[in-house]
Amino acid sequence: MNSTSLAKAGILTVVLVAATVISWELYVRSKGYDASYDDEGPLWSDKRRMASEPIDRATVFIGSSRIKFDLDIKTWESITGDHAVQLACVGSTPIPVLEDLANDPAFKGKLIVDVTEPLFFSTSGDNQWRPRKNLKYYKDETPAQWASFKLNRLLESQFVFLDKDRLSLNAMLDRLQIPDRPGVRSFPIFPVDFGRVKFNRQEYMTERFAADTNLQNQVKGIWDFFRKNSKDPPASGAKLDSLLNLVKTSVDKIKARGGEVFFIRTPSSNPMLMGESMGFPRDKYWERILAVTGCKGLHFADYPEMTKFRCPELSHLTQPDAVAFTKLFIRILTEEKGWKFSKQVQP
What CATH number does the domain located at 50-142+191-335 have? Predict the structure, then answer.
């Protein structure tokens, strides 16, 4: 084959590949898909590096999925002037990240800890694997992995079809409606419209999910699946004392360096709230956190404005409500809790 033929073949290959990529991208966008970032170790590590910013420039958030949905980062940063460093991990306890920050001499800033009782007071290691995996990646990340992350960020911001959680082959196979075998029950899959992840790691419900009760009922069914299949009793007795002492030790280390720690209990609704209140009475869990650590806190149930929020699938706020919740949270922090931010917050 001569050079002219090779050139023609190369051009044809490029054209075919480009046409295929563009066609697939246009197709998935026509189906309502939009950009969402891969919320794994590389993205988490990128935010973890921001945690060492001075106390007057950033606030770090740890917890589980509720604070990822309920805190609107754009609103937070526009009002306070602080960077919102989102280190929460879905379906996880924040304690491994709390310990990591406590043992990092470079962290001397403001920390807000979201308390979702079934995860925070878990006696199982199953709720720790995601933050521990992220921490391992952060500590072991190579220059090549860092460079790959920077390139992926550029591509993910432009091409929707790169979303591996919704559009990869494995993700599509997982969503096939295959009946369970007798005695075997598959892990439930969240609807693709439940959440999207921004580059700042904020997660949010799509407008379609917020308006579709069928999708909301699917997620309610998933919460019920977790409840029925959980073999993880709430921490109590010596186990609870040990967990609280661990939290206190970490908090004390942060305070000793000049940092601030604040606890928040974000909203849940209806049966979810009722079950959490019965399983984790405030006096035995929430109040003890504050008493043991000597920290200030905010429980949404103490504020009538916050109890008006309704979580469509019982556990997370919609985008508009996240904005309103964030504004209320900032007002309470500044007017009642004495927190200071980079900007003067207007009453």
Answer: 3.40.50
